[in-house]
Design the sequence.
């Protein structure tokens, strides 16, 4: 779901006192109901937005005090992570997340394929933007990399994996902070084992990466449905946990980097952008993905072609699918995929009549089928930015690339000074120190490039980062914050230009 443009409210809002802000927000949000799912068990509930709390502001003598620059930095850096690699086409990556919703509906996952054959160890990275609650995004972030890694295996390795008593991990994940509740874990393991058995009978000796992406994504999406419907058809039982995962949804952007080969699969409205340096030392943003939303004419034509002409005015309304959903492709979201009869018997008893959207005549209206893009990396390609639309709502791809490019130049000053050679003259040392002193003016506040992007996306102006603006926006509670910005998840992967230069064409 796209956030309103921040400039729409900001010039007026920032000038108001706290009481006036509360009145403005309460009148705007009064009576607005949304559906959420809890983190621990993914159980659906509804809540009424009525509060206009300002959570991070401190009351002092009756007046609100904004977070200091140091407190703002603590908030921004809470979820940042960095991983370095000793060899390969990716030198390192930075990641970070900043919540707007409570709980955050974005997730991310990164890992290295352990069993994939080949000279280069393939790196998988994914950004997942949930809606209708965090359940679907959290589940696919834990499962999807394994589904894709399995599809990348030739049939002999699939069979070897099936025969193992103690299964090897297909993906070595990094920064994996959450776990699936035990009863769901058993269900998911059974689904994955069945998926591997199917792969054993259909896998081919030669791997098609694009086909593997599509197979893994579609199979996981299908499993989200089957895990609800099979028990229901067997004994009429409805598991509210699997149902909440299937009824919430998530868009996804996943990259696979294998030596000089970059593949990006996209479902929905996250985006991936490459930062490239030209011969003239100018930054260029190469946008790899295309959003699946109403701004994509080809996507609109696809949806219109899949439904009768008399639904043309209802299938897309108010720039949303059936007037409700902003992304036009996603995982989960079975409110837009199941037949109406299934929704009536499975979803309506738990969620209510609104489980069936208006004008719901010829489902499915939604697909999880990805668009998969290929790019052959060159030494001029310096980094890849993957992010949820919370970032892209705030800054353009070129702005993001320039910010990371400037950050690359400035972050070298986080490292101690090293003399370029032995027996250097004192005069040369003095000149080196003077140059470093002058260059330190461009040193960024954050070592992590993902944090750097989030800081500038929220607080950036044409004159730099405005602390007051940044502090105000970080002070708002979740029910207010969504008026101004969405959850943000950012991954920045740095390429090793020399390694890529030496890769065979």
Sequence:
């Amino acid at each position: 779901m796209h956030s309103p443009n921040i400039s729409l409210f900001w010039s007026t809002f920032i000038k108001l006192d706290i009481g006036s802000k509360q009145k403005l927000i309460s009148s705007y949000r009064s009576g607005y109901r949304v559906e959420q799912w809890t983190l621990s068990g993914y159980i659906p509930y509804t809540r009424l937005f009525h509060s206009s709390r300002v959570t991070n502001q401190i009351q002092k003598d009756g007046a609100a005090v904004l977070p200091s620059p140091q407190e703002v930095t603590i908030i921004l850096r809470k979820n940042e992570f960095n991983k370095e690699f000793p060899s390969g086409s990716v030198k390192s990556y930075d990641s970070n997340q900043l919540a707007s919703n409570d709980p955050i509906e974005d997730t991310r996952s990164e890992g290295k394929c352990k069993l994939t054959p080949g000279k280069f160890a393939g790196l998988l990275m994914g950004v997942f933007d949930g809606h209708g609650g965090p359940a679907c995004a959290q589940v696919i972030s834990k499962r999807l990399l394994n589904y894709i890694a399995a599809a990348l295996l030739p049939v002999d390795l699939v069979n070897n994996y099936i025969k193992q008593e103690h299964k090897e991990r297909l993906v070595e994940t990094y920064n994996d902070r959450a776990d699936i509740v035990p009863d769901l874990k058993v269900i998911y393991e059974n689904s994955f084992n069945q998926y591997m058995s199917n792969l054993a009978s259909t896998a081919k000796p030669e791997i098609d990466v694009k086909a593997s992406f599509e197979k893994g994504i579609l199979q996981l999406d299908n499993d989200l449905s089957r895990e609800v419907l099979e028990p229901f058809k067997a004994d009429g039982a409805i598991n509210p946990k699997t149902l909440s995962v299937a009824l919430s949804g998530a868009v996804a952007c996943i990259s696979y980097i294998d030596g000089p080969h970059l593949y990006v699969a996209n479902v929905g409205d996250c985006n991936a952008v490459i930062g490239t340096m030209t011969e003239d030392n100018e930054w260029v943003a190469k946008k790899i993905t295309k959003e699946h939303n109403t701004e994509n004419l080809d996507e609109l034509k696809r949806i219109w072609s899949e439904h009768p002409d008399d639904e043309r005015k209802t299938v897309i309304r108010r720039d949303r699918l059936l007037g409700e959903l902003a992304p036009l492709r996603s995982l989960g979201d079975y409110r837009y995929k199941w037949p109406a009869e299934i929704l009536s018997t499975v979803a309506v008893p738990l969620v209510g009549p609104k489980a069936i959207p208006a004008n719901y005549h010829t489902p499915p209206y939604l697909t999880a089928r990805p668009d998969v893009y290929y790019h052959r990396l060159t030494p001029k390609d310096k980094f890849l930015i993957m992010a949820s639309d919370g970032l892209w709502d705030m800054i353009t791809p070129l702005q993001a690339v320039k910010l990371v490019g400037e950050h690359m130049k400035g972050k070298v000053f986080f490292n101690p000074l090293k003399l370029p050679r032995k027996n250097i003259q004192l005069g040369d040392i003095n000149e080196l120190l003077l140059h470093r002193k002058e260059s330190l003016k461009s040193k960024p506040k954050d070592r992590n490039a993902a944090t750097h992007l989030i800081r500038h996306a929220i607080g950036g102006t044409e004159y730099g980062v405005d602390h007051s603006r940044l502090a105000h926006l970080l002070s708002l509670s979740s029910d207010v914050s969504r008026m101004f910005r969405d959850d943000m998840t950012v991954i920045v992967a740095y390429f090793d230009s020399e390694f890529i230069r030496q890769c065979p064409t």
